[in-house]
Amino acid sequence: MTRSENIYLVGLMGAGKTTIGRQLARALKLPFYDSDKAIEERTGVDIPTIFEFEGEEGFRDREQKMIQQLTQMEGIVLATGGGAILREENRKLLKENGFIVYLQCSVERILERTRRDTQRPLLKTGNPRDRIESLFAQREPLYLSCADFKVDTGVMQSKEVVSHILEEYHSVNR
Known about the structure:
Elements: E1 7-10, H1 17-28, E2 32-34, H2 35-43, H3 47-70, E3 77-79, H4 88-97, E4 99-104, H5 107-114, H6 128-146, E5 149-152, H7 158-172
Parallel strand pairs: 1-3, 1-4, 2-3, 4-5
């Protein structure tokens, strides 16, 4: 792992990357970025609209450019999109430039957390459970391959998750 002040959060949608990221940034007095929000700000449209007009591949192209830009910054907390790790280049950039935390969460908890969210294009399906299980099976090996630390966000309150991350982060960045 590279010694860095950057903390990058990876994990499935609904795992708590934005919530935990904001709290981590506050605790460390670092700026917080959410790659999906940064893409929306840059394009002036929301993620579902990008998916509608450009498809997932078009969105992933935009996401890769944003990850390239954000990983050049120093001293940030970044919540990545759930699929950011699908591209090897993104995994490489994250690994080279920061401390990666995989926020793991059960399919049940993700279903609970996302059931009313209309801004998740990958869940616009007749069977969200099957979709989440499929995404989990595809992505978990990638999350694990690049993570410096893993924490289960489905069994703890966010403050406890933040505390565990800070403890690990400080132990490797002495």
